[in-house]
């Protein structure tokens, strides 16, 4: 499993939440775990931009599962709880 960290610069006193994206071995690519800090979860879409269409990712904020993300063939993101 690969481990990648995308981090934004933090100013003293800033406390951005930590998000994690997990991708399992699914026939579309290798399993991955990606951690990043951001103001909110929408940054996950930019991080997943280079993943293959059809690949399913799970988005977490700390220990809380936020949902599953999957890009459809037409480029539209499917988001499920």
Portion in beta strands: 35-45%
C-alpha-based Rg, rounded: 13 Å
Instruction: Name the helicity range.
Output: under 10%
Question: Taking strands numbered 1, 2, ... along the chain, how are they ordered across the largest sheet?
Answer: 1-3-2-4-5-6
* H-E string: EEEHEEE
Shape: globular
**Termini gap:** 24 Å
Overview of this structure, please?
It is a single chain. The protein has 81 residues and is mainly beta. The chain has one helix and six strands, in the order E-E-E-H-E-E-E. The chain has one helix spanning 43-47; strands at residues 2-6, 18-23, 32-37, 56-61, 64-71, 77-80. The radius of gyration is 13 Å and the shape is globular. The protein starts with a strand and ends with a strand. The model is unreliable at 9-13 (pLDDT under 50).
Spell out the key features of this protein.
about 80 residues, mainly beta, six-stranded mixed beta sheet
